Amino acid sequence: MGVETGLQLRTLIKRSGELELSLVDVPTPEPGPDEVVVRIEAAPINPSDLGLLVGAADLSTMQASGTKDRPVITAKVPEAGMRAMAARVDESMPIGNEGAGVVVKTGSSDAAKALMGRTVAAIGGAMYSQYRCLKVSECLPLPAGTTPAEGASCFVNPLTSLGMTETMRREGHTALVHTAAASNLGQMLNKICLKDGIALVNIVRSAAQAEILRGLGAKYVVDSTSPTFMDDLIAALVETGATIAFDAIGGGKLAGQILNAMEAAINKSGKHPYSRYGSNVHKQVYIYGGLDTRPTEITRGFGMTWSVGGWLLFPFLMKIGKADTERLRQRVVDELKTTFASHYTKVVSLTEALDPANLAAYAKRATGEKFLIDPNKDK
Amino acid sequence: MGVETGLQLRTLIKRSGELELSLVDVPTPEPGPDEVVVRIEAAPINPSDLGLLVGAADLSTMQASGTKDRPVITAKVPEAGMRAMAARVDESMPIGNEGAGVVVKTGSSDAAKALMGRTVAAIGGAMYSQYRCLKVSECLPLPAGTTPAEGASCFVNPLTSLGMTETMRREGHTALVHTAAASNLGQMLNKICLKDGIALVNIVRSAAQAEILRGLGAKYVVDSTSPTFMDDLIAALVETGATIAFDAIGGGKLAGQILNAMEAAINKSGKHPYSRYGSNVHKQVYIYGGLDTRPTEITRGFGMTWSVGGWLLFPFLMKIGKADTERLRQRVVDELKTTFASHYTKVVSLTEALDPANLAAYAKRATGEKFLIDPNKDK
């Protein structure tokens, strides 16, 4: 098979309440003057991709069918989950936020031709495809000596972690809290904060994860599974003065515990008089992920000056504008092999991505476990 | 007893984990040149007063002691509740946000003397007192023919309900949702919205409450105890386009249900393309009360563009500034006997306020039940 057609991973949720993952052959579009065709060789499976890939499906009901070359996975979507899926029902969707590869065909413009043979990264969607036709302006040419695997995660995690420290500053906070902090993203955020001199309170879910972060030089690491968790967290918040948190967990009690610990730390600081409505210091938790899909359970013991809300990279970039986005993007390219280096536990092909054992592994979203898809691995 | 001393209601939470409510004799301060002494004759028990009055105490453990003239109420504060109480422990605090009464003594300035004999309202705190010394600038002189009972609730409910429609406009929404909507405040908000042509979705917790609001001319009333609640709410949100809610309940699932219903209504409108992150329309719930003290349980099925946070009158007034605050205040005075009229189920003296049966009744915060304290009723 040449560049004319390529395999593409598709996700479909049927009105009947069934998720179907499959591979389809799609013709590669002929590039327009300002477009290029990229042979995708590396695309990470980010938590944000998983949200689209499996939606509200219950993977314990997963069934494999199809053939070796064209595997099909099906799973049931519980009725309660279908409401949130309404807008995507019966629409077969390509997937894969970001990735990198080599330009194998170009349009007629000089800018397009200049990219021939270059390794480029992009955040164009549909990256779990063998070939992607992209605008020149969508391509981020990587420095010589950078492999597609090294450049695959140029956007989501690097810009998200930079977005967190930017948001912290813009909203008037001076230190921050991060949950699921041993994740790829969390490790990146640690490197940024160490480099930029920002106090970061890392919340992890095991002693082993705490060790990973301490090994990276993290100063404040608290383990939510420890019996002294709340006391440890309050102590770290007293020391750092953090009043903003970014939470990848979403479900369960953690977001509320953070707000309560912030308020306790503010009261301990003795800087604020008692008010029946709690301190007047604004306490913010942004939920940017959903590692725990259970409801968010907030025990309100922190007064009235608080907010919990969603945080998403693209609206954030829209808000800060083009110049500031470009500044963040340039920093990522400059520090791609240091601050923003990503690590993967396994590289899979498109067919391997639909192997039930692999799917079960990456859908668990376990910390430290990160898959990279190489759509051209089988070729 | 003359004006020299007066009874004052006090609330105290002891380090031992005990709430104590009592009456104490306090000397009335001699008014300074720009101050007056007000004989308080009417002070409402608002939900916000109850938060300070009983704190985290468990009223099922309530004990009455003391004498007929100096009753004392005690109750246990569960250990889990003591953390939030830390800042007020062992401090005997006066109470009563707002009230009205008659000026019985004045300072030497012309402005103070001009108030002699006038009925004034104030939001000065410690209003559950027989006498309050207030600055002239704290007093809102009421129009002739207004009784203290009519002016007692000039501030909290009127400015809070006006603050909701102001917040709605300032944050770019065009219609709003209100919970516990049959409350005194909710009825006020209905009158404001009807007058100002704002679509208001009223969420109530019984068919009887729905009737109260329909009787006031409310167009959108949905009952959260109805089996068709979610469908009814979504239908009302499709019609009104409301994307901001003010929630007095706080605990349980309601805040999350509102966000989910908003997202469903936005999707039904067909105006926004599908995104894996949900619609890009900002959905806001402000929690301004805690009628349900259980944790807030949010089932996140509404994408990433959302926020739940605390809303409080005074920070809001600080934010909008003096001129806009004055504009709202003037509207309240102008419409005190119409839009902003309050209704009370019972008028009690200070000793009656500490009668266990009364305390149990008003602490229930039942919709439609509202107590007014007349500290000089026994005299």
From TrEMBL, chains A, B:
Q: Which residues form a coiled coil?
A: none
Residues of the Enoyl reductase (ER) domain: 17-373
Answer yes or no on keyword Mitochondrion: no
An example Gene Ontology molecular-function term? NADPH binding
Tell me if Transmembrane helix is a UniProt keyword of this record: no
Keywords assigned by UniProt?
A: NADP, Oxidoreductase
Q: Please list which residues make up the signal peptide.
A: none
CDD domains associated with the record: ETR_like_1 (cd08291)
Q: Which InterPro entries match?
A: ER, GroES-like_sf, NAD(P)-bd_dom_sf
Q: Enumerate the PANTHER family for this protein.
A: QUINONE OXIDOREDUCTASE PIG3 (PTHR48106:SF18), QUINONE OXIDOREDUCTASE PIG3-RELATED (PTHR48106)
- Name recorded for this polypeptide: Putative alcohol dehydrogenase-like protein containing a GroES-like domain (Nter) and a NAD(P)-binding Rossmann-fold domain
Species in which this protein is naturally found: Bradyrhizobium oligotrophicum S58
